[in-house]
Design brief:
Number of domains: 1
Order of helices and strands: HEEHEEEEEEHH
CATH topology: Jelly Rolls
CATH class: Mainly Beta
Helix content: 10-25%
Shape: globular
Distance between the termini: 33 Å
């Protein structure tokens, strides 16, 4: 039998995940973005994509999250329960950068890809500019991301 406090701790862990900036058990891929290489957690399932980077205290430099979607469409992201600002880079199916935006911590307004996109990459604020990523760039998508795996 599970004791009530243990149940609360388990629920907090499952809902909040690891709070120290370390990957939440998701697979990762190394990806070249501009002049830098990042370790990206792959949020593939609906639940993983919905949670994203929520409830974490930090996103270490050189790390981020990529969201591969089944189809190319206009995507919308928001920052509910995300404790730090982010850059979001939207890519089409070929890996072409179709839009780049900054998102504020805890902002519940929707940040749109503006045009159809198949992938979104979240990085620490200002990382896209620091890496030299710009609209129209074609970024090489890692096989771990494009191969599926649902």
């Amino acid at each position: 039998m599970i004791r009530l406090p243990s149940l609360f701790l388990l629920a907090a862990f499952l809902l909040g995940g690891c709070n120290d900036g370390k990957p939440a058990g998701l697979p990762t891929a190394s990806m070249r973005l501009g002049n830098q290489t990042y370790t990206l957690e792959i949020a593939r399932s609906g639940l993983e994509q919905e949670k994203g980077l929520m409830f974490r205290d930090v996103l270490p430099q050189g790390h981020g999250m990529i969201f591969p979607f089944d189809e190319q469409k206009v995507l919308g992201f928001w920052m509910a329960n995300v404790r730090f600002p982010l850059d979001v880079i939207f890519l089409d199916a070929s890996g072409k950068v179709v839009s780049i935006h900054q998102m504020k911590a805890y902002d519940k307004s929707t940040t749109s890809s503006d045009v159809p996109a198949k992938y979104a990459i979240e990085l620490p604020k200002d990382a896209a500019a620091a890496a030299g990523v710009k609209m129209g760039d074609v970024l090489p998508l890692p096989r771990e991301v494009t191969a599926g795996g649902k």
